[in-house]
Amino acid sequence: MIESLLLAVTRISTFQGERGLTNATGFFFERDGRLYLVTNRHVALDEASEHRPDRIEIELHTDPDNVAATVQFSIPLYQDATSVWREISDAAGIVDVVAIELERAALPQTRLLHAFAPDHLLVDLDDVEVGARVTIVGFPLGFHDTFHHLPVARQAVIASSFGIRFQGHGYFLTDARMHRGTSGAPVVLRVADGGSGRGELPWILLGVHAARLDVDNRDAEQDERLDLNCAWYADALLALTAS
After folding, report:
1. How confident is the model at residue 65 (pLDDT cuts 50, 70, 90)?
2. CATH number for the domain harbouring residue 181
3. Average pLDDT of the residues in 165-174
C-alpha cells in the first residue's frame, strides 16, 4: 500500500520550448468536481529572475497495480498569449500560489492520484500552535524515489504564530532544512482518525511551501542560514478555485 499523501504530490519540470529550466513540486486539489494543480506562482513566472517558462510537465501514475508506471503530462502555461493559471493578490501584493485547472478528459484514463479538497483545510486557526510538528512533501533538488516516482517527506515545525500573517504577508514560517525543488510542496498535519470528509487522505492542509528566508546582514563566513521558510496559508486555495 502506498501512502495516499505521496500520491497527492507530483514533480513539476518547467520548460521554455524544449529547453528544460527548473524542477519544482505541486499537488492536486479538487473542488466542485474540478481538479487543479497547485504550486507557487514563481514556478510559473518569476519576473525578478526572468524565469518565464511556457509550459510545465507533471508526472502521473497510471497503474494502480504498478506504482512504477508513470507518464509525463505536458501543460501549456499560455493560451492565446494569456496565462492559464489562476492567481490572486491581497493587501500585501501577489500571493505566491497559483492553481491550474486540469482537463480530466485529457488526463490518462487510468490514473492513480489523490487530491486535497476544501474539507482538508483548517477550520480553526487556533488549533495549531507555534512549535507544532508538520510534514512537507516534495522533491528537494529533484531528489525522489526514481523507481517508484514518489516524493520524500521532510519534518518541520511551525516557527511563527499560526494565524498571524508574518510581517503582514499571507504566510507563516516553518523551521526545516529545505532546498530548491520543494517550491509548491504541501505543508500538512496528520489527523489520527482521518477526520470528517477527509476520506483516504487523513491530513490537514495548512499551507504551501514557497521559499527559504534569511536575513540581509548575515555573515556568510560566521553565521549559518536560519533554515526558516515561508509557507502561504492554504485558505488561499478557496479564492483561487472559486467559480
Report:
1. confident
2. 2.40.10.120
3. 94
